[in-house]
Amino acid sequence: MHLRYSYRIYPTAGQRALLARTFGCARVVYNDALAARKEARKGGQPYPKSADLQKVVITAAKKTAERAWLASVGVDPLIQSLRDLDTAYRNFFDSVSGKRAGRPVGLPRFKSKRDTRQSLRFTRNGFRIRSNGKLNLARIGDVRVKWSRALPADPSSVTVVLDPSGRYSASFVVDVEPGHLPEVDAEVGIDLGLTTYAVLSDGTVIDNPRFLRKAEKKLKAAQRELSRKAKGSKNRAKARIKVAKAHAKVADTRMDWLHKQTTRIIRETQAVYLEDLNVCGLARGRLAKSVHDAGWSTFRRLLEEKAARYGRTIGIVHRAYPSSQLCSECGHRDGPKPLAVREWACGACGVLHDRDLNAARNILAAGQADRLNAPGGPASPGVAIPRQARPVERGTHLGDQRTTGARAAGAGGIPIH
Fold first, then answer.
1. 128-131 contacts, C-beta under 8 A, 24 or more apart
2. I need a labelling partner for 47 at 20 to 30 A (CA). Which of 66, 352, 353, 411 fits?
3. What is this structure's pTM?
4. H/E element holding 7?
5. How many C-alpha atoms does 196 have within 13 Å on its Cβ side?
6. Position 373 confidence tier, pLDDT thresholds 50, 70, 90
């Protein structure tokens, strides 16, 4: 399976200037190719292939006075920008034809130099890891990397990302073998909420940290300072970065917390069952800020990814299942209740229920029943890895994707587990 490993990098002032120039060249190549395809469609001409576009917007463009500066950067990121355009078109066509699940995907749009997030991708021919641990990028040089953990294998590509807060990171794509954890007998159902983040069917309660709510005072002050700066001024640019750093700190803290919680759940339980919440619908209501702050979709995604990687099972209960209305002891349906009701007694058996704990137990029972009765289901858990690295990021050619399962040698200077 192909996974990502991201690390902070610290380019020098000269390297930042070279990266900025490469960002701009890749953006221009992308926009030129997109414009060529739009013109071809408007004129009723055949759909231009990537090989033909590469000759026009890269090879031939370098020989013109208007695009001669394309020769000052490495060609690998320019070619990868064309592959990104192919992926964008493919996602659009798959969405229109119904092959792609989820929200509808629109046609590719032109990129702007004012975008606060920029990225470049280098394949095997465009980067290498030095013996001293530095990352060598074509036409950029050796960049210092903060290796927070070891790479499990040689990477097939690396994406250099500049985020809105001005931080640079390198995202490596590596091919690793799944490592299943020892089997355990525990299975849990999870009821997600806002008062308490999650209640497990075994009685475990996870409090809601409310990272955004706690940081609102600092965020408001930074945003107020930004609003007072003149548009287009250097002081406004500095204030914008300050706001972006404040938001990045909240996002990073939330992601770190979600990783720790999901890892603990996956290690301690063999099967996890969740309710299919309508997060998009809830995020449009009066609780929108709290719903976004909770990050339920990310919580579910991390659980699914780690379960598939480590041999656990994830079950999703349909959102129409009345988990808060059923008695987990006798199964009597007691009807809907307002959110203010946190405890209720069953009208049939008289058992006093905690609303969230009762819902978690019902989700567990429903998930187990669905798993046992599912026809044609997988024979073993972990049959797929959601949100893997895209095929376009795994190598330059199809032959670059190893199919033997053999581990690669260690990246120079970086220890391998």
1. 128/412, 129/155, 129/411, 129/412, 129/413, 129/414, 130/412, 130/413, 131/412, 131/413
2. 66
3. 0.86
4. strand 2-10
5. 16
6. confident
